[in-house]
Amino acid sequence: FGSSRFCGLVCRMALVIAVASVLSADPMLVGYYSWNWGQGSVGSNASFGVAFTGLNNVEGAIAGYNTAASWCCPPLVGERYLCLGGGNGAGEFSADVLKDITANMWRVLAANYTGVVFDAEIISGSADDMIPRFALAFRQAKAIGLKVVVTMSHSAPYQTDTPQDAVAFVKAWVRDGNIDMVSPQLYSSGMESSPDLRETFFCKDAGCSWMAYVESVPKFVPSIVNHSHFPAVQKFFQGALDVHGFIQWAQAAN
Question: Which of 2, 100, 114, 157 is the most exposed place for a label (fewest CB within 10 A)?
């Protein structure tokens, strides 16, 4: 990860990871977010598109991405994913929020989405209480045939009860077989000219480093400002993490 202190681990893992990458030959995943304000985004030749409203409830997020409304957004290209959560109070996850999401997960499928994205940046509640609640929501989504993505601000949620909770969330998610992709956001403002590869400041000293993702069960598919950042991301993680693709945040005009 651009530092000599990771060399020992990288040297031991490099050959195994390289061989595994060649043997798997997985196609690169290319996704994009389409905001429900402005003109939204059109991802040409994308694997999947993500309907983004910043809301943490299923019914609101579905209603908020209405392609038939003049104020809204274009149809999604590729597989259709619904995003739940976001980086402010409207996207905060709590016990009640997760209970409601789990109970209404069927509505995501009924609205013809093939996947759900949990934008977990702000979490209220201890890791001991909330990790099982997240796991139940992920399990429910998979049980009805939805794919699951978890995205977070840089290497971990930026606001949790304690920094240690943020670390615990990430460690649980990278081991969860019901999550298809983890997608750390490699930006802060969304206007960066290059990827912001810093770990989450809030919990960095507690251990929310990129090392947590080394043996991730879900595919590592970071969110980046735009596709031009991808080569730098690949170079940064080369030899330690297999980067399976990216999700673009910047909006592409129709």
Answer: 2
Asked if residues 222 and 198 have their Cβ atoms less than 8 Å apart, the reply is no
Main-chain dihedrals φ then ψ at residue 29, nearest 5 degrees? -90, 125
Q: What is the CA 236 to chain-centroid distance, rounded? A: 19
pTM: 0.90
**Residue 99: CB partners within 8 Å, gap ≥ 6?**
133
Residue 76 backbone dihedrals phi, psi, to 5 degrees: -80, 145
Which residues, listed in sequence order, are joined to residue 147 by a DSSP beta bridge?
Answer: 115
The predicted-structure confidence for 15-64, as pLDDT tens digits, reads as follows 333 334 433 457 899 999 999 998 889 887 899 999 999 999 999 999 99
Q: CA 244, 249, 253, 254 torsion: positive or negative?
A: positive
